[in-house]
Structure formats: C-alpha cells, structure tokens
From TrEMBL:
GO terms for biological process: phosphorelay signal transduction system; regulation of DNA-templated transcription. This is Two component transcriptional regulator, LuxR family. The modification 4-aspartylphosphate is found at D49. GO terms for molecular function: DNA binding. The keyword DNA-binding applies. Residues 1-119 form the Response regulatory domain.
Length: 215
C-alpha cells in the first residue's frame, strides 16, 4: 500500500513495485484514505509520506502510527523530502522492528530503495544514510560511545542504517569476521552483555541515535 499525495510519485512508485513483481493493493492521497485502505486490503507493507494533506506537516507520520496501532505486524517505510531528525531519533524507540525512514531522493536509486523495502518487510530496520550522517554531526557526550574507535563508530553508523554484518563488510571492504569483532567490541565498550534481556544490536543503535540533539 502506498500513501503519497504527489500523484506522479505515487503512480511512479506503484509502477516500479509492480515491475518488480510486487502486488500494490491500494494507493492513497491522504491519511483518511490510507487508513480506510489499510482496513480493507490488509497489506503487508505500507509506504507512507511524512507530510500529507490537509496541513502537510505530520499527517503521514500520525497515520503510520495509527496504522501500526491497528496492525502491529504491519511493516512501514516512511518517505520524507527532508531530514526529520526528531522522527529519525524516535524511529527505533522501544526496539521497534519492521520500520524504515528514507529520503525521497533514495527512491531514484532503485536498488537501494528496493533493498530497504525488502529489509523492512523481512522484519528489519532501514534508516537513510544521510540521516545517520547528519545525526553524527550533532552528538552529545556518551561515555560508552566516547570509548569507540573511529572504525567502530563507522560500523555502528552502518548498523544504524539497518545493515547486517555481511552488508557492513561489503560497504567497508573488510571481512565479515572483522565486522563481527568490531560489533563484539562495540557491545563490550557499551557494557552490553549477552545476559541482557534486550536486543544488543538495537540497544547499541538507540544509544547512538539518542546521543544526538533532537531537531
């Protein structure tokens, strides 16, 4: 399901997804239409614009939150024309899964967009690299994060994008074993032990995102 008020982008997304063999069950131009389509078609994934009518502020986000309240298993990929840092910081709140946040320009990079969509649909998280880059420039002190090496911070930033160890290894041109060692070191420096009843990867990313100033 696609929620986007720009008709060209909305229909372009639908054509792209159908060309990839995906079933687009509904498209919507506004939040009320989006939620009605959700109840009628029961989609697996919703692609939602942050800003929708009538005020073009946060209607899309509020519709996405309501959609997840109605169907907690729904995967949601949010699109935005700008970096909405406050939303990006909250994206992984509570260890949320099946959520993604991409800048609209990423849609034009078809392979990256589809990779993020499939990652979210499979239960993962996808955060736009540009959002992560901007968050990196606004960090507040965190004793654990301060202990990380430059390479470990690179690995953690890629984790924040939602990449797994194999993808991180490919991005950094290192072995997967090297990435695994970096991840273990990150957990150790952030005092995250295997005995913790939390997802250590999600917790590490949350520490990273929460070390940023909200917009």
């Amino acid at each position: 399901m696609i929620g986007e008020d720009d008709p060209l982008l909305r229909e372009g997304l639908a054509l792209l997804l159908r060309a990839e063999g995906l079933d687009v069950v509904a498209t919507a131009a506004g939040p009320e239409e989006l939620l009605a389509a959700l109840d009628e078609h029961l989609p697996d994934v919703a692609i939602v614009d942050v800003r929708m009518p009538p005020t073009h502020t946060d209607e899309g986000i509020r519709a996405a939150v309501e959609a997840r309240r109605r169907r907690p298993e729904l995967a949601v990929l949010v699109l935005s024309a700008y970096v909405e840092q406050a939303f990006a910081t909250d994206l992984l709140g509570g260890g949320a899964r099946r959520l993604g946040y991409l800048l609209k320009e990423r849609v034009g990079r078809v392979e990256e967009f589809l990779d993020a969509l499939h990652r979210v649909a499979a239960g993962g998280t996808a955060v736009d690299p540009e959002v992560v880059a901007q968050l990196l420039t606004r960090t507040r002190p965190d004793a654990g994060l301060d202990r990380l090496s430059a390479r470990e911070r690179e690995v953690l930033a890629l984790m924040a994008e939602g990449l797994g160890n194999t993808a991180i290894a490919g991005r950094l041109v290192v072995t997967e074993g090297a990435v695994h060692k970096h991840v273990r070191s990150i957990f150790a420096k952030l005092d995250l032990t295997p005995a913790d009843e939390v997802d250590r990867r999600v917790t590490a990313v949350l520490r990273f995102l929460r070390s940023t100033d909200a917009r």
